[in-house]
Amino acid sequence: MPLPVPAAAFSSGRTHHELLLIEVGSAAAPMPPGRCVGLYQFGLKVADSDDDLREVVRHLTEHGVPIQRASDHTVTHSLYIADPDGHQIEFYVDVMATEE
Q1: CATH number for the 40-100 domain, one of 3.30.390.10, 3.40.50.10420, 3.10.180.10, 3.40.605.10?
Q2: So what's the pLDDT on residue 24?
C-alpha cells in the first residue's frame, strides 16, 4: 500500500513496520561534516546464516546498492551500506562460536 508521504517502511513481517523513514525534503538542514552527535549507524539482523547473508549481497547487488564493506566481528558477520544521507546501515547475522 502506498504511503501518503515520501517514505519507506521496513518490516520483518512481525508487524506493519519496525522502521519508518520519512523524507523531509529540501527544507531540512544538511548533515554537518565530520564527527557529529546523532545517528550515524544502525544495525539490522537480517537472517540466521552466512548463506542468508550471501542472499542479501545478491539482492543488494542486483538492485545497484553499493556495499561499502564487510566485516567479521567474531560474533557477527556484517555488511555495510549507506543511505542517501550518508548514515551507515549494518546488515548482520549472528555467528555461533565453535568449541575446540
Answers
A1: 3.10.180.10
A2: 73
